[in-house]
Write a structure and sequence with these properties.
By secondary structure, the protein is an alpha/beta fold. The chain is built from eleven helices and nine strands. The chain has a six-stranded mixed β-sheet, with helices on both faces. Strand 2, helix 1 (25-41) and strand 3 form a beta-alpha-beta unit. It starts with a strand and ends in a 12-residue tail after the last helix. The mean pLDDT is 94.
Length: 241
């Protein structure tokens, strides 16, 4: 479901498996387990880069699994979807509280919860030759969890961009995503977006920032999101002088 590799101080989390990388309980658990390992091995200067193999970064919650596991019962399907929403919230908590800089290298489509997964990272880079960002909930007829909305409000500064993403269901390509403030930079293809992520990661690793201090400053930057996620902040002082 995912692989974890470490090169120097940079951790590489790669989503593997089927092409869409849909988020079901098993996949969410796999990613959380990898993040737990990253956290346990973190030292000053650690950095996380998340990418994915194939056409998608992630196509959101695994609705096909939910329908199959519920034997076609609409009420049971909804219950399984709500359970995935709760489980995914814990994954978002893991990322928002991870004691190191985080980078998402979007090498394919990132849709619905897959887009939320991407922007849960500190930095988001995207390829311009293929892939879109898309919140599909309006089109498929479901509302968004409160922490999805808090994430959008925290990470997308332009109200008109949030409106178009959530209330028009626009499919956003890389250059548009940069202009909207969804991603930080656009790159020619999958290889170049990964190269840019590695370059950024190596530069950040050189800072050798204290991970606990970094995490607390990140949390204080997004008070609305952290309140919805149930994360609290604390004062930390580990001066290097």
């Amino acid at each position: 479901m995912c692989t974890l590799e470490k090169r120097g101080n940079v951790f590489f989390l790669t989503l593997t498996g089927d092409d869409e990388h849909c988020l079901n309980p098993t996949f969410i658990s796999s990613i959380r387990s990898a993040l737990s390992e990253v956290k346990s091995q973190s030292i000053p200067g650690s950095v996380l880069i998340t990418s994915a193999q194939g056409k998608y970064f992630s196509n959101g919650f695994d609705l096909k699994w939910a329908k199959s596991a519920s034997d076609g019962s609409p009420s049971k399907t909804i219950d399984l979807l709500l359970n995935m929403v709760d489980l995914f919230k814990l994954l978002v908590v893991d990322l928002v509280s991870l004691p190191m800089p985080t980078i998402a290298a979007i090498t394919g489509h990132a849709c619905a919860a897959g887009l939320v997964l991407a922007i849960s990272h500190d930095y988001v880079l995207m390829r311009r030759d293929r892939g879109v960002l898309y919140m599909s909930e309006l089109d498929i007829g479901i509302t968004l969890p409160d922490y999805f909305i808090a994430m959008m409000r925290s990470k997308i500064g332009k109200p008109e961009a949030r409106r178009d993403i959530l209330l028009r269901g626009v499919k956003v390509k890389a250059e548009e995503a940069v202009a909207m403030g969804l991603v930080g930079s656009a790159h020619d293809d999958g290889e170049s977006v990964l190269e840019a992520a590695v370059s950024m990661g190596e530069d950040l690793a050189k800072k050798k920032w204290d991970g606990e201090v970094y995490s607390e400053i990140r949390k204080s930057l997004y008070p609305e999101l952290c309140e919805v996620l149930g994360l609290t902040t604390k004062d930390v002082a580990n001066p290097r002088f």
